[in-house]
Write a structure and sequence with these properties.
The longest helix is centred in the last third of the chain and has 25 residues, at 68-92. The chain is an alpha+beta fold. A hairpin with a 5-residue loop joins strand 3 (24-34) and strand 4 (40-49). It has a five-stranded antiparallel beta sheet with strand order 4-3-2-1-5. It has helices spanning 52-62, 68-92; strands at 3-7, 12-19, 24-34, 40-49, 64-65. The model has no long low-confidence stretch (mean pLDDT 93). The protein has one domain (3-93).
Length: 95
């Protein structure tokens, strides 16, 4: 069963998706944060954990249960920033 988690310390939002085909768990994550100085982090990725129990243990120790909408909102923020960065790059290098 898919579940969603929020790590407040790392500012990551997780989607835990147990893959029943090969017995591994996919932890998709999104990280979006703007610092006080205007710099920002926007990243997304996937971690693969060998057992569901291990993934749950990691998430329970580092994150709080979250919602699907919260994960989607994090993705929206990621793509909005990504679009601005991409547009600025295209403009700057006249692509």
């Amino acid at each position: 069963m898919i579940s969603y988690w929020k790590d407040l310390k790392q500012r990551k939002t997780y989607k835990m998706d147990p893959d029943t085909r090969d017995g591994v768990v996919h932890l998709f994550w999104v990280q979006v944060h703007m610092n006080d100085d205007g710099s920002f982090i926007h990243a997304r990725g996937r971690d693969i954990i060998n057992k569901k129990e291990n993934a749950e243990k990691i998430l329970k120790e580092t994150a709080l249960p979250y919602t699907e909408q919260g994960y989607i909102d994090s993705l929206k923020d990621y793509f909005a920033i990504d679009k601005k960065v991409r547009e600025q790059f295209i403009k700057q290098y006249k692509l």
